[in-house]
Every structure is written in C-alpha cells, then in structure tokens.
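Box 4.2: Ligand-aware structure prediction
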Amino acid sequence: MDIQENVDLLPFNTFHLSATARYFAVIRSISDAQHVFASEVFKKNEVLILGGGSNMLLTRDFNGLVIKNELKGINIVDESDANVMLKVQSGENWHGLVMHCVEKDLGGIENLSLIPGTVGAAPMQNIGAYGVEIEKVIHNVEAIELKTGHVRVFSKEECLFGYRESIFKQELKNQYFISSITLTLTKKDHQFNVSYGAIQDVLRERNVEKLTLRAVSDAIIFIRKSKLPDPDLIGNAGSFFKNPSVDFHFFSALKEKFPTVPSFPGEKNLIKIPAAWLIENCGWKGKTLENIGVHKHQALVLVNYGGGEGKKIWQLAQDIQRSVKEKFHIDLHAEVNVI
Ligand code: EPU
C-alpha cells in the first residue's frame, strides 16, 4: 500500500469541491491502517480521515495526509431467535448496508435509508432521520487508536451519543479511526417507527396495510428524493447546520413574536427549532449566488451547482448564520465538518 502525492479530492466529497491533498492513502485492511499510522508521513502531518466525504466542506487545499477508508465486509457475529448482531466494516456504504438489511429482513435501520456516506461516519455523528438515530441499534464500535495502532472496542454507553454527537467528535476527536460497528437488529417482530407525519402520508397514499421494512424504506427514499438534492447530480452535504435548541423562556418570547415558528422536543428539556424554518424566514431559501446557493426545497441544504468554491459556500453559510442571529437571536452551528 503506497502513499500518493498531490491528489485532487473532487471525486471524494459530495459537495464536488476541488482541493488538493498533499498526501493520500487508501486503507483496505486493518494492517493497511496500522501500516499508515506507523509511517513518517502520518506522524509528521495533519491527518484527515475520509469516509464518503458526505459531511464535509473543503475550503482549502489540505497540506497533510488524507486517508480514504475502504474497509469492507458485513458479517453476522451472533444470532438468537429474535435478533442478529451484524458486524460491519467502516468503509462500507451506509445506504448499501441499509439495503442489505431490508433484503435480509433485518429491522432497525430502515428509517436511515438513503443517507449518504460510509458506515464509519454513522456513529461519529450519530446519524439520524425520521425519528431514528443510529445509537438505537449500536451494540459497539471498534476503533484503532491513531497514536498507538491499538484496537479498542467502545460499548454503546462509552460512545456518549447525543444529537449529531459522539465521543469521537468531542473528547476523542482525531484520536481514533473507526474500523467497524456492530449492530443489534431484529429478525422478527420489527419495531416500526412511522410517527413522522410524512411517512404516514406516503404509506397511506400507497395503500400499505401491512408494514414491512421494505415499505418503510421505500417511503423514506421517496420522501428524501422529493426534498433533498441527489449529491450525484447537485453537490451538497445534507443538512448544513444542526437544528438549534432553546429553553422554554426563550421559546415563549420567540413564539409571541413569530407565532408560526415550528418546534420539536429536544434533549435535556430544551425545545428544538428547525434551522430550515429560521433560514427560510430570513429569505434565503432557493437563493442562488452564481454557481452555489440554498436548495429550493430544503433551506437547510447548501448546494454547489458545479464549479463552486468551498470558500464561497462557507461565506454564504456565515452570512446565513449572521442573518439568523440578527433576526431571531439564535446561533446556528454547522453540522458539516469545515476544513
Ligand atoms: N422547514 C422549513 N423550510 C424548509 C424545510 C423545512 O421551514 O425549507 C421546516 C418545516 O417546519 C418542517 C421542519 O422544518 O416541518 C423540519 O423539516 P424536515 O422534516 O425536512 O427536517 P429537518 O429538521 O430540516 C432533520 C435532519 C435531517 C433529516 C430530517 C428528517 C438535522 C440537522 N437534519 O432535518 O438530516 O433527514 O430531519 O428526519 O437534524 C442531515 O443530517 O444531513 C439530514 C438530512
């Protein structure tokens, strides 16, 4: 396995941004990973680990080592009458895994259909959609310590999952390389989560009487396709910002001034406000600035129509943050990693 030099990252990020990596290595096995972590190039340079490149904004060339994760494999490691424990290597495509599980009738991740990116990135930010977060099915996460090359298994509790958060984004940021995850999935008596209004609407329109993993997954794929731009066609990284949370007093005052503001229960008794609503109500939805902009169907998604620059997208993001702050006195925080 060799380390390449001066590689364009354009094919490796869903925003389709061009940026040069000074060094670039592809990892296809644990021993590849340990080999790279022991190399001089690794020890002397800033390191960026790349999964599907679906949650990052490249605003500059990367004068360090980019590691592309290509660890593959999906295996049953334990099984009972009711459940399966599935160990999945971190370089697998997330949606590919969801489709594998739907085909094998293994329940638990069907609501997370069509989320771009790799399996390794999923616990990193506790991916979630349509009422389900990955923490619900995580049994453990196996990771390699970059400094020592040692493999460590993190129990679900040790991962400290929160809304788009985990220990790997906080205390242990840039210290571990996630090599695999093990999920507990149901073989029968699946617990469907179709509380999200839009899912119910689609299932009703399709006259689905008996819920199946396939029906739920298909409904979610349909909803996502109708609202979110396909990164193969229009560069984007999904939700650019996290949905902010505010306390009850702040929310009451806000609601008085803006009676139509939507809200959802958040963590720790806080109230979550859709960032998309705040952005739309500052007039940004559908706005285009040359070849970048704010998506016309989902104000939380920034887009690169082709040939856009990461720096300009970041400028746009900061302009959005400023106007939301001015109008609503709320800070929006980026959900994507800005490099
Ligand atoms: N809304 C607007 N304008 C818009 C879009 C939405 O006002 O342009 C308001 C509506 O009131 C709507 C509410 O925002 O009811 C929520 O919108 P939506 O259901 O589309 O979800 P979201 O809060 O914008 C979150 C996740 C998505 C996930 C969806 C569905 C975050 C940051 N984003 O978006 O995750 O797919 O819920 O569960 O939590 C991602 O993380 O990349 C992502 C796409």
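In the box above, the bound molecule is EPU. The mean pLDDT is 96.
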